[in-house]
Amino acid sequence: GIHSPPDMLRLLPVEVRFFDLFETQAAKVHEAALALKEMVHHYEHVDEKARLIKELESDGDRITHDIIDKLNRTFITPFDREDIHALASGLDDVLDQIEGVSSRFALFHVQSVTPEAIELVSVVERSCEAIHEAVSHLRNLKKIKEYCVRINDLENEADFISRNTTAQLFEEATDFRELIKWKELYGRLEATTDDCEDVANILEGIVVKNN
After folding, report:
1. pLDDT at position 1, please?
2. 120-166, pLDDT tens digit by residue?
3. 196 close to 128: Cβ distance less than 8 angstroms
4. Residue 29: CB partners within 8 Å, gap ≥ 6?
5. Range name among 13-27, 64-78, 117-131 with the lowest pLDDT average
6. First to last CA, the chain
7. Is it the case that residue 2 has pLDDT exceeding 50?
8. 4-210: which CATH topology?
9. Phi, psi torsion values for 76, nearest 5 degrees
10. How many angstroms separate the Cα of 184 from the Cα of each of 122, 188, 191?
11. Phi/psi at 77 (nearest 5 deg)?
């Protein structure tokens, strides 16, 4: 009908829009990981810092909804619809986990941070940095594989730290409440790297299908 040209124009630059949205979402994920790293390295004003990460997570939620909304209204997508949906959801999961960790530091009134927690947060931050790098290469699919390998290596590293630390915790903890707090925090940090690995697997799938 008479109104079709503006609608058609709105549907044209689809690829650019999705890539931009994913880059913004991945940048939020890395920003939240950096904020968590800052929190554990300078462990003060914890409630305030957790609130900031909560805001980043809310921003990320909005981007996820935006991607899925555009996906439902776009005829031609740069890669498979289910991959776009999976990647948006996967990035959202990582951001949710980071927010879950930061809010628990506040909620549990953790007095001081263990070296192992700092180490695990560092692994999370490096994983999120690699995700951000990989996502920013989606347009040309170059280098994504090497970032995914890095994310897998980091997940193994987190797994190793988490296992050893949890075993040590059970041997050495004298305070049952402290044991429960730290078991939960270490478990969540390790789960965050698992979610990063899920994102890496989605990205690798996109590369395989589109190369």
Report:
1. 46
2. 999 999 999 999 999 999 999 999 999 999 999 999 999 999 999 98
3. yes
4. 60, 91, 94, 95, 98, 128, 131, 132
5. 13-27
6. 38
7. no
8. Methane Monooxygenase Hydroxylase; Chain G, domain 1 (1.20.58)
9. -110, 125
10. 17, 6, 10
11. -115, 155
In terms of phi and psi (left: phi > 0; alpha: psi -120 to 50; beta: otherwise), the region of 101 is alpha
Query: CA–CA separation, 78 vs 144, rounded Å?
Result: 16
Q: Tens digit of pLDDT for each residue in 153-189? A: 999 999 999 999 988 988 988 899 999 999 999 999 9
**Is the distance from CB of 92 to CB of 24 less than 8 angstroms?**
no
Task: Give the tokens for residue 105.
Answer: 């530091």
Q: Are 12 and 77 in contact (CB under 8 A)?
A: no
Question: What does R_g of the chain's alpha carbons equal in angstroms?
Answer: 19
Alpha helices per DSSP H over the chain: 4-11, 14-41, 46-73, 81-107, 115-136, 144-172, 176-210
- Retrieve residue 186's tokens: 């270490």
Backbone angles phi, psi at 157, to 5 degrees: -65, -45
CA distance linking residue 100 with residue 123, whole number of Å: 16
Please report where in the chains the tokens 């909304």 appear, as a residue: 69
Phi and psi at 109, nearest 5°, equal: 50, 50
**In this structure, what token pair is assigned to residue 111?**
């007095």
- Region 37-52: mean pLDDT is 98
